[in-house]
Design a protein that fits this description.
Elements: E1 2-4, H1 6-15, E2 24-31, E3 34-41, E4 48-53, E5 56-61, H2 62-68, E6 71-76, E7 79-84
Parallel strand pairs: 1-6, 2-5
Antiparallel strand pairs: 2-3, 4-5, 6-7
């Protein structure tokens, strides 16, 4: 199951207002606060699940989608957030190689 909230749709509408819509990849990234889902413009591959919502195409690796589903793309004060029931584990919270970690 996949959901795009109205707030996230409005932000995506604004981004693509004057250009052609591109597929949006949902992927797992790692950083100082631990693993999290992120978004990027990308084309689908044979190993992707292709999801449609509100006129937009989202792509995600099939195995990751199975593990993470259900997913919701929403907005937070910091930008897009992808919510999932998948346990992502704790964050490092103090790595020395990152300029955003104090």
């Amino acid at each position: 199951m996949f959901t795009l909230t109205l707030a996230a749709k409005e932000q995506i509408d604004s981004h693509f207002k004057d250009k052609a819509a591109s597929p949006i990849r949902i992927y797992l990234t790692h950083g100082c606060s631990g693993p999290r889902f992120a978004l990027a413009l990308d084309e689908p591959t044979d190993s992707d699940e292709v999801l449609q919502d509100s006129g937009y195409t989202f792509v995600m690796e099939k195995e990751l989608f199975k593990q993470a589903s259900p997913l919701t793309v929403d907005m937070s004060p910091m930008g897009f957030v992808v919510k999932s029931e998948m346990e992502l584990g704790g964050g490092g919270g103090g790595c020395s190689g990152c300029t955003s970690c104090g």
